[in-house]
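lol ok so funny story. i was supposed to be doing the assay writeup but got distracted and ended up predicting the structure for this chain instead. priorities right. anyway since i did it might as well share w the group, maybe its usefull for someone
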Amino acid sequence: MTTGLILALLAVLLAFGMPLFFALGIASAAYFWAVGIDLALLAQRMTASVDSFLILAIPFFYLAGELMNACRLTERIVDMSKALVGHIHGGLGQVNILASMIFSGMSGSATADTTALGSVLIPAMKKEGYPAPFSAAVTVASAMVGPIIPPSVALVIYGALANVSIGRLLLAGIIPGLVIILSQMVFTYFYARAKGFPRYPRADFPTVVRATKRGAAAILFPVIIVGGILSGVFTPTEAAAVAVAYALFLSAFVYRNVSAGEIWRVFQSVSLGSVRILVIIAVASAFSWIMVREQVPQVIATGLGTVSDSSIVVLFIIIGMLLVVGLFMVASSAEIVLTPILVPVILAFGIDPVHFGVLMVFSLIIGGGTPPVGVLLFIAQDIAEISFGQMVRAMLPFYIPLFAAVALLALFPQLTLFLPNLVFG
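and the output, tada:
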């Protein structure tokens, strides 16, 4: 009874537009008061959840990505992608997709990907004759790989909340990221061919070499992170700090195109963004303790067990639920709230938590490209200067490769687990 009232209170607060931190905090405090637990324990739960060496990776990865963005590598990435895939049917659409994969290795954020690449590629695609809605849609769809390919703040958050190896999670995102990108490139190939969209002549070898050299810094960014973790040189948190040092080195000594004032503004922005994430993690950890105390995961597991005892069926049911949640909640907020609740459920059915983490992040991020809350849709719509209705209609075909990728990753866990098992056993 108490649990139902607390969940109802949380739903009401969120429905009235209260920020997630305050909604979770009020609901948690109400529970502690109702059952007679000292509120000091609530504060202890909150502080303990963020007093972690692993959590340091979150602000470091944020900072590294923002510093790389400040280096204005976007145009170099676009030029390199154009030389590599611009000749394939779809032309700039294919460039957009490949550039998103490379850019995700710097930012780890779908929002940053949509904003940075969209501001360059959407106007360029419109100028070369591509319909504005298609240009916006391919940008949104390709940006969804951002939180999957390392470095991924979303996977770090999941690992911290689920008590799963961050190194395994970062490795687990590589092949799924390629699956997502390839599914979109194949779809765009046939779609663009049917529509007669333009493409570039094949670039000669010297052009490819020059373009690759100019964009090499972006490629090296995830290589340093993953390579360092694989070789055992540093932990994921230390890798994030090394990534910041690399980004600062590029800014100060290689490109020299970032002023001290810009770097200071990046530090300010990242500090505020990190605090927002950390305070939500803190209060969500207290809320998840309540859910565990009230045996909510066990109730969910029992309910799912009455539907089917097949782990695949249960996994698809949970994915469906996550896709629905993504329609109404920002992915990062939904991940923080649901991870502690769902991980005990999937463990009860023998589902690997690393495999589930990648699926959970991707399923929720698809919500960023779906109405009514889809933040990515609003960003791309604004850049493309189209109506929201045009944006949504243009996205409909792109859900085909996105859902196909989700299904492939769910049905074939080894796509996710091959690299982590190969390296860590």
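The chain is about 80% helix and 0% strand. The first helix runs from residue 2 to 15.
back to the writeup now i swear
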